[in-house]
Amino acid sequence: MTRVFLFVIFLIPFLSGCKKDQPTDPEKPKVVAGITIQSISSNPFLNSDWQHAIGGKGVLEFKLKDSKDSTSSRTQDSLDLANASLYKKELTVGKYDIILDTKKTSNVADTFLRFHSELKGLSVEKQEAVSLSVTSSDGLITIDKDYIKDKTTPTFQSKSDSKAYNLGLINGFYYIYVKGDISGTISFTSQITNKVCMKDIDVKSSNHYNLVVSVSKNNSVQIFLGDFHYKNVAGDKSTLLTLDIDPGYMSFYKNVYYILADENGEVLNKFEYQKGSAQVSVISNKDFQKDRFNLYRITIPLDNGAPDIIGYLGIKKGSVWRLKSNNSPMRPNVDQAKMTIKPGSEHYWLRYTADNSWSEIHPFDPTVLNTQTLVYSADSKLFLLAKSNKGVFYNFFDLPAGTKTFTFDPDKCTREPVVKTFTSPGSDIQATVFAWPYKDFGNLFWFGSDALAGNTLNYYLPQEVFGKYLTNISYKLNDKNYSYTYVGSEIPLKPEMFDADFEISGSNLGDFKFSFNNKADYYIAVFFSDKAQFRFYSPVAANYTKLKFPDFSEYLKTDKVDYSTFKLHEFSLHSGNIFKEDLLDYPVPGNPANVETFGISKYFN
Q: pTM (2 decimals)?
């Protein structure tokens, strides 16, 4: 794809040195003008404010046309494009085709933009001024000089001719123009690590490839394609964001993109995540002196389905997004086993858990052989809770080591459970309890999720006591849902009060307005459409309520994003005793790693 930019040629009166009264030779063609090239006036590349390097030699051709539009004469001339404003050329009255080309020193790469321009049928008269449309098939590669070791020069080695081309240096950036549809490798020596780094690039016409370099704490180097902006010497180049990633987290996506923007949606930096990268430091490419910014991650699924956009809005400069498991290590699982529930009993409801899998069977048909898949560690036991017309009973059973199939009889559930009564200030109460069977491992027993329409609930637990439980109690009060999660040696039977509250108006991202009190740590807002899902997190301390976004159109495959099509699905406020503003992800309610959380939410569409 070619992009068009313009430079202007002015035809100005050509002054001969002849005296005023000297007779004109009627046989001599009349000289009427001199051509001056004024400037190159526009940028051929989208989404880039790069000012092109114009230089080298240019070749001008003037074709004088006759009355039948045939070429009667041709005149060629050369000019120094870096000093094009000094060029002058005599012309006679007539109609011309004018052609300007850069004189190529290479068909692959150069430190000057290669372009072509042609203007047909220009009628040359006195005081004429013309604009020539210029096209280029070049692409551009740039890299900040600060990334490069002093007294070394980056190179581009083309796969088409295996030649290494030195990059030029201008305005603090190394750069090179490469013909479109050529692939090659950028090589440079890192200023920080003193090691040679390489990046493969497939160059397309009119595309700008700005390389961003990140060095992790262990001196491993990642090279990204990022947004380009000229340096502002007065700008703050401190780190806005650090990504600390387990690369396996990104294996579920085809592409992952990051955008950093200010509160008005102006892009500070953007880049595509390179799979396998473990730590990335990101700075602003613009002068940015504020303490808070907005961060967006766009993930494209492996099947090229609708993208998912997560935003952290109004977060602190220097925040860390850590995508790693915070859970305790797990005991290794044995192979999956098939557990068969013996038929013939009078039980109609069963719940079971090992230390890494759980479920319930309701209703349970005692006349049918029922087989379940069970995953567990070598030291796990099986908890089985059975309900019948005779009552509720349970037992713990040993799991046979190395056996892939086994059968359990619900009639052997003979022990009476402990009954705990949960209460709440609202209706639709629900309770869930987990227990850690091992002190130093994250394996869990699940004792069930029970719910009733009222505000009290009887819950069945084993008589055995565990050192640590996770308890979640949720309920509905007025038109909002409340949630309380507690981790400790006790099981709280009623939730602690959460005084946070919010007000919502609007039903979509186009007319969405909201307010909240300061009793929470952060809010979550979720919007759905057939094109994408938006999920926003923001610390309450930032008070960021007037949402303004960067342009997501290229990721949503549309010319313009219609935010009214994104329907509000959920809004919630949350607090957690391990919450830190500058540490992402924010706590997820009910996650055993997050210890204690409070939440108030409302569901919409």
A: 0.64
